[in-house]
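User: Some background: our group keeps a shared notebook of sequences we're curious about, and every so often someone picks one and asks for a predicted structure to add to the entry. Today it's my turn. The entry only has the sequence so far, pasted here. Could you supply the structure so I can complete it?
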Amino acid sequence: MDNNIHAYIKRVSERIPDEDLPLLASWAESRDIKKGAVLLKEGDVCREFYLVEKGYLRTWYNKDGVAINLNFTFEGEFTTNLKSLNGRLPSELIIEAGEDTRLWVFNLDVRRGRFESDSQIVLFVRRLAIHVMLVAEEHSNLFKLYTPAERYDHIERNNPKLLQRVSLSQLATYLGVTRETLSRIRAKKSGQRL
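Assistant: Of course. Here's the predicted structure to add to the notebook entry:
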């Protein structure tokens, strides 16, 4: 398992020396959670980064009783609520397990207590925050640059796990369309393949 977490850390920050990987890995706590378990509740202040080893996490918010999905974090990916984490603000988002999930939790309060003076950990946290921001920007750009059908094509090419593991209703809100529109897009694509 140490090799997995070392590889994930290296993916975020390639320049971290191999001898510092055990220190960074020791900061993370392994956790198994059941589908539907909430890691971050609306109104709580986020103090953690999450790295998914198995399963996936869903980040969403409640808009007038409708769950709007913002992100799905799969194996080998990190997530957090940067706005809450950075500003110590109550979270508007919810992060929960979309499946039974094994993850690594990097708690900033633990880092502050034990690792505050370690420059490699400070550097890793900065790079991790940038990494999470870039993932969020990519999703945001889907809405700025593409039509709903093009968004679906993009996901089909670049993140097929979404199509295989996420419900149609959740995928529809993630793409910013109704379930019916998503069904039409999928039907049209199926017709084109025949």
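Suggested note for the entry: The longest helix spans residues 119-145. The chain has a mean pLDDT of 88.
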